[in-house]
Amino acid sequence: MPKKSSGGxxxxxxxxxxxxxxxxxxxxxxxxxxxxxxxxxxxxxxxxVESFDELPANLKTPPLSQRTTILDAEGDQIATVYSRDRxxxxxxxxxxxxxxxxxxxxxxxxxxxxxxxxxxxLRALNKNxxxxxxxxxxxxxxxQYVKNVFVEEAGDDPTKVAQATQQTxxxxxxxxxxxxxxxxxxxxKKILENYLNITFFGxxxxxxxxxxxxxxxxxxKDLTLAESALLAGIVQSPSRYDPVNDxxxxxxxxxxxxxxxxxxxxxSQAEADKAKExxxxxxxxxxxxxxxxxxxxxxxxxxxxxxxxxxxxxxGKTKEERAxxxxxxxxxxxxxxxxxxxxxxQDSLKDHVYKSDKVAAAATLVEPGTGKILGMGQSKPYGYxxxxxxxxxxxxxxxxxxxxxxxxxxxxxxxxAAAALEQGKPPTQSYPAPYKMPYPQQVQTCSGKPWVNxxxxxxxxxxxxxxxxxxxxxxxxxxxxxxFVQMLGDIGMCPVVKMTDALGVVQGNGDKVPEVPSxxxxxxTGLSPLTMASAYAAFASRGMYCTPVAIESITQTxxxxxxxxxxxxxxxxxxxxxxxxxxINTLLSGxxxxxTGKEAGLSGGRANAGKTGTTxxxxxxxxVGYTPNLSGAVWVGSASQKVKMTNISIGGTYHAQVYxxxxxxxxxxxxxxxxxxxxxxxxxxxxxxxSGEKDPKEDDRDDNGxxxxxxxxxxxxxxxxxxxxxxxxxxxxxxxxxxxLFQGQGNGGGGNGGGGRG
Length: 758
Hints:
Elements: H1 12-31, H2 45-54, E1 68-71, E2 77-81, H3 96-106, H4 118-131, H5 141-154, H6 158-165, H7 169-186, H8 188-198, H9 208-216, H10 225-234, H11 247-263, H12 269-277, H13 299-311, H14 319-328, E3 331-335, H15 339-352, E4 360-366, E5 373-378, E6 406-407, H16 413-422, E7 430-431, E8 436-438, E9 442-443, E10 451-452, E11 458-460, E12 470-471, H17 472-478, H18 481-491, H19 494-502, H20 517-521, E13 526-527, H21 529-540, E14 544-546, E15 551-558, E16 561-565, E17 572-574, H22 578-594, E18 609-615, E19 620-627, E20 630-637, E21 646-650, E22 653-657, H23 664-676, E23 709-710, E24 731-732, E25 735-736
Parallel strand pairs: 1-3, 18-23
Antiparallel strand pairs: 1-2, 3-15, 4-5, 4-20, 6-13, 7-12, 8-11, 9-10, 14-17, 15-16, 18-19, 19-20, 21-22, 24-25
Helix pairs in contact: 1-4, 1-7, 3-10, 3-11, 5-6, 5-7, 5-8, 10-11, 11-12, 13-14, 15-23, 16-18, 16-19, 16-22, 17-22
């Protein structure tokens, strides 16, 4: 049995013998000779040669993982994302000094030997025997390149990395076989190029181009002699010779490289001595990896792009396939993000909401007719510290958003109106709309089984002065809850379901909006700002709904060649007639002219429309609005849904009560104003809608947009009111409803008191 050293390993003599055994095996393989038994060296020749022969004939070289660059719509960089920071370059774009330095210090006989350097093996064996340890290796650059290929293929899997680097004869045999193949197929220059692109230089830099940028903020082709020697010296031990953390050790190693270059005749001794006197001259560029480094507050949009890539089948059939492509990188992703719109979103959020506030705000801008996301931001920055978050409040849970989205309040009412108009209801449709009333006794659903108000729930308007009858125009401007519940009872829920389906309206968790009156009228269901902005964009584009998109194009660099990848496209379809859309545009123009959204209205004669929304206990406030060429949604609230926005300071402004018009409204106004500056101002195709029986100016209301609060009987949480519905009857606080109010809906029964606000 072999003797062990005191530390438990092989003695120096045994290590040398083992090393020699591998080397002799390599030499034998090169010569194509069958080996006799060499059991004295600890190797079974027959088994070793069989293992060698059983290896696949060709080394499968995976494409090198590189950085991915994410650009805005104008081609400017938003962020870089990578599993390994690497930019592959041709040999001609690598300084000749760098090429000579790496060869001199790692494999000075690189151009004289084949895949295995037998002279180097014997030299290393002699030095190791003299030192009593392994002080010098004998791997050629080709062998090192092959080992790095195995490491690259292992990726971030620690088990596979360990297997790729373990000091075993089996691994050495694999390296030797593939080194022979690589030498035959690639040639010296290509091997050197590949090696300089694959090897690790410390400080998260893989490949010489990334290393040159990291340490000297310059391209690899511009490296000086001293700089090249420094980088070449790092390779042997990136942590030990790290110039950022140990300048003295790095200088010593650099000078060793310079001396070696002089010894092999790459430079003169005088050149080496002069370079040794030079300071390190570091100009370090800090690693900027990931969406957290994105400019203009675009971190959340950046993460959205990443989520799209990892979830869309266009980039791979399985999650694993898509992740592999993403981690490999080398992608240049041009997105839809408009830098002007994004800057305006961030400036507006910063002006109106502090990141330290108890509540947050999120805003998203979408282009009608294309679905392009032009801006996306929020008041709490992307991060993991205090007053930061990694949740994107603008999107659904599957794309990194909150679990359910946020209740939208009265911003849901235009969907009800659009459904009613599509059913043939006139834009002058009138309902009694009392201050307080029960929910309908029954409301028809798509399944044919009616929803029944088994709990006798009631609702009310925001102000006691809001007493009908109202026509649609006034009811929309004042955001009259009882009006829209009566409209729902009239047309049934299925037309609203069909409308929301056509507009891509789903809950934040991806489920459909429940068929209950509180969800179908008062917005008790959680939705995301992106969903709302995209749905309202259909009004702006005269009834055409386009699915949101964030990616314009992708170019992938593989093996020095670029190719275009297929990207997801927006799908546009007609959600409603042009007449219906024009009617909604007319109605919602009135909201910003004289209704609850006056504080959000745009100036300068630009056509604009929108709707306010505030939910139970003022836990959420919304403004969703649009012009013919831009749609935007703004939400204000707390992600936990635990903050009631009463007697609260937001952005340094005190609010006794928050309304959709006075908090998210101005954010929307300023974001839209900046985004549209210098852009055309097309008009809406408005229609004539006669005034109803009541003039909104006669109502006892102030100018702060009161009337957008949408009660759902006190239900709290993200989806309050989804289960508890409401009640209806034929009496409402002394106001008798007409017999045909809920025609065909099987209504009946009497109502009792309730607590919903409007």
